[in-house]
Design brief:
439 residues, alpha/beta, Adenylosuccinate Synthetase, Chain A, domain 3, 2 domains, ten-stranded mixed β-sheet, four-stranded mixed β-sheet, 14 helices, 20 strands, 32% helix, 20% strand, binds guanosine-5'-diphosphate, binds 6-O-phosphoryl inosine monophosphate, binds magnesium ion
Length: 439
């Protein structure tokens, strides 16, 4: 296989977990490069459900190496809990198959307090974060007052860095948020306690990745969140606090862009969003409810109901542009099986004009009217279909219309949550990447 980056093309939860699990068999290394345990990547293997938050999805494949890169933020308690839970489900997790960059930043308990307190202060205008301290940890990283997971290795650094950080954090927690602060001793003791559990996993993962590339191994870079949640390119401020697009793979792992052979976007056959922020094609009616129920659209991390809407080609074209996708995986096609008719959004009508490019202005996104193309539903079961030929003609028409509108190759069609419920399109770009090493 080639070295590929798999990222979300919408507002997250596109089915990256399923797609990455499927592709992991072809990879030597599966590496996360951004985000934290705000992510929830669901995989079903033989009807058993696994949800990955900080650990790469590839961990479910024995004998693969997984990396948590420098671009990820880590809550050690959550990570240790996730390790234990996955081990309890039969996964093997050792310092041999899971490596963590010493440069990955820590999520501290005060980061979580800031996240929750800020959301409280925002009131109606809240972002709807996962409340896990992700944003404040990235803030500290940019402010150069963050702690790295590598700091766990030195008692002295750990204590000093906690003390320094708390002088400002406690002031703000007490005086600005009217909340309680933390003591250096308490946090030091807590974090010092994580050292023994984690120290053997910590290393310089950039050296590993670059060595693996030099040896011709195959790297699968696993994105979290999605293009529209990207801090630079998403629907700011209703975004997450990291870059979630393909270019971040290099930054968040420490290798050069020339080593990336391909970028695969993952998109649902419709669209969802969890949390607040503009969502032009959102459905507030029975169809929206139907999609939520049929697609089981409830957050893998927070359990919140996801907002559901029609496929938005304006969003997808934007995601294609900023990620450089040449091919996408289209997931959850089966969720649309019983609908009589479908809509595809091709533009936004705003002050008499039709916008075809995704606009920056939140006001336009909120107040413009989506321009829809109507498409006939197939009203036939596609769930579980494994070959393109077996899809009903009307389903093929929907897929072909998306392909034409987006001017992109569609390489995977997912027809159910199980591994096997998938079509890998022959001669697609992905098909070529998968067999690259045999050529
Ligand atoms: P991720 O964050 O992108 O990995 O996606 P999530 O795991 O948060 O949400 C996707 C959900 O859809 C999960 O529950 C998957 O098991 C499920 N899923 C993925 N692909 C399909 C599909 O083709 N059909 C159906 N019905 N469910 C799917
Ligand atoms: P995966 O990897 C969907 C959303 C939150 C909120 C915003 C900011 O499973 O696709 P944060 O806690 O990151 O500061 O919240 O981003 N969000 C996600 N939505 N899927 C995710 O991850 C998400 N991670 C964060 O709901 O709107
Ligand atoms: Mg998810």
């Amino acid at each position: 296989m080639a070295n590929i980056v798999v990222v979300g093309a919408q507002w997250g939860d596109e089915g990256k977990g399923k797609v990455i699990d499927l592709l992991s068999q072809y990879a030597d290394i599966i590496a996360r490069f951004q985000g934290g345990h705000n992510a929830g990547h669901t995989v079903y293997i033989k009807n058993k459900k696994y949800v990955l938050h900080s650990i790469p999805t590839g961990i479910l494949h024995p004998k693969k190496t997984c990396i948590i890169g420098n671009g990820v933020v880590i809550d050690p308690a959550a990570l240790i809990h996730e390790m234990e839970e996955l081990k309890g489900q039969g996964a093997e997790i050792t310092p041999h198959n899971l490596r963590i960059s010493k440069r990955a930043h820590l999520i501290m308990p005060y980061n979580k307090s800031f996240d929750l307190e800020r959301e409280k202060k925002r009131g109606e205008g809240k972002i709807g974060t996962t409340g896990r301290g992700i944003g404040p940890s990235y803030e500290d990283k940019a402010a150069r007052s963050g702690l790295c997971i590598g700091d766990l290795l030195s008692e002295k650094n750990l204590q000093e860095n906690i003390r320094n950080a708390l002088s400002e954090k406690n002031f703000l927690l007490k005086n600005y948020f009217n909340s309680s602060g933390f003591s250096t001793e308490e946090l030091f003791e807590q974090y010092n306690g994580y050292r023994d559990k984690l120290k053997n996993y910590l290393t310089d993962t950039s050296i590993m990745i670059n060595q693996a590339i030099a040896e011709g191994k195959n790297i699968l870079c696993e994105g979290a969140q999605g293009a529209m949640l990207d801090i630079d390119h998403g629907t700011y401020p209703f975004v997450t606090s990291s870059n979630c697009i393909s270019a971040q793979a290099c930054l968040g792992l420490g290798f050069g862009p020339q080593s990336i052979d391909g970028v695969l976007g993952v998109s649902k056959a419709y669209i969802t969003r969890v949390g607040n922020g503009p969502f032009p094609t959102e459905l507030h009616d029975e169809t929206g409810k139907h999609i939520r129920q049929k697609g089981q659209e409830f957050g893998a991390t927070t359990g919140r109901p996801r907002r559901c809407g029609w496929f938005d080609a304006v969003v997808l074209k934007y995601a294609i542009r900023i990620n450089g996708f040449k091919t996408i995986a289209l997931t959850k096609l089966d969720v649309l099986d019983s609908l009589k008719s479908l809509k595809i959004c091709t533009g936004y009508k705003w002050k008499g004009e039709i916008l075809r490019e995704f606009p920056y202005e939140t006001e336009i996104l909120e107040k413009s009217t989506p321009v829809y193309e109507d498409v006939k539903g197939w009203e036939t079961k596609t769930q579980g279909t494994q070959s393109y030929e077996d899809l009903p003609q009307k389903t093929k028409d929907y897929i072909n219309r998306l392909r034409d509108l987006l001017e992109i190759d569609i390489s995977i069609i997912s027809t159910g949550y199980q591994r096997e419920e998938t079509i890998i399109m022959k001669d697609s770009l992905l098909d070529q990447w998968l067999h690259l090493s045999e050529m």
